[in-house]
Amino acid sequence: MADRMPWLEGVLNSVRAERERQEVLKAGRRDSYSDDERMFAVMRMLVEEVGEVTRILLVEQRLTNDRNDKELRKKLSQMAALAGAWIEALDEIVMDE
């Protein structure tokens, strides 16, 4: 499968690096969320990133005709990493039950 998707390794490496960055940032905080609060916290961050991608596409690229693909890729990696964090949280909840 990897031979048919040579780009996949680079994408997953970006997402993994972003997820690790998020964990480092999280380690500096002392949040103690309930399961529901944790789900909403991740969802809020994910929606924020969707808004930032929308801003890049609609405002920066469309209105100024200035493509910023590097920033767009960074934001998309953040979104994917947050989706991964949400999956992690769900898996931890299921394991705790």
List keywords for this structure.
globular, 97 residues, mainly alpha, single chain
Structure description:
- The chain is an all-alpha fold.
- Helix content is 80%, strand content 0%.
- The protein contains three helices and no strands.
- Helix 2 runs antiparallel to helix 3.
- The longest helix has 30 residues, at 35-64.
- The chain is globular, with a radius of gyration of 16 Å.
- The termini are far apart.
- The mean pLDDT is 86.
Summed up:
With 97 residues, the chain is mainly alpha-helical.
Order of helices and strands: HHH
From the alpha carbons, calculate the radius of gyration and give it in angstroms. Answer: 16 Å
- Mean pLDDT over all positions: 86
Number of beta strands:
0
> Which sheet architecture does the biggest sheet show?
none
C-alpha geometry: globular
Low-confidence stretches: none
Show the helix and strand layout.
Elements: H1 8-27, H2 35-64, H3 69-96
